[in-house]
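Suppose a classmate hands you a notebook page containing two proteins, each written out with its sequence and a corresponding row of structure tokens. How would you begin to make sense of it? This section walks through that situation. The first entry is reproduced here exactly as it would appear on such a page.
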Amino acid sequence: METLIINADKSHINDIAELEKLCFYPPWSPAQIESEIDKESAIFLVCICEGEFAGYVSGDNIAGELYIGNIAVKQEHQGKG
């Protein structure tokens, strides 16, 4: 199984927003997601599994330390390590 962890960009906003709706209340809006991706201190990564968006993690790099803000994985990809 090929799994890629890559930097999120604007092409991932819709996938992230849909996953937000499934995992969180209230979910981040697409505008909030875009704002987070664009932040200078942001670490925003997506997981692509077998060519399909599987999840994401977002956080901030503050003074060289990562603070995780959100993490979400599609249900069908959970528990796979």
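The notebook's second entry, a different protein, reads as follows.
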Amino acid sequence: MLFRSLSSSCPLLDDLVIDGVELFDVGLIDFSSPSLTSLAWGQGLLGGKVVLNNPNLEYLEYAGDLYPLLSSNCKFKFLLKAILALENKNMPHEHDANQFCQFISEMRNLEFFGLFGDSLQVVL
């Protein structure tokens, strides 16, 4: 609810950085904003799902657990740079790997793609 309020209160917001904010079992985090071109958020989302409905997003940086990211279901038409530092506290399942591959397959116009942390364990 906080992020939806933020995007409706700041309709021209194009760059959002969230770092050091711990969110426990909040259910749904909605980062939707048509004006957002840059989104970076660090670890701190514990439990819940993420909605990324940002059609003009050009930069995405994420550090944290794999599962909220997989639930985002976003098309990344204009994404040019993505940096993912994933954690997977449990052993990844084949289903996780397939979902992760589907997630990154939406990033068709990347000029830079960085994978860090447990990211490679997820896809291998």
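A careful reader of the second entry would note: The first strand starts at residue 15 and ends at 18.
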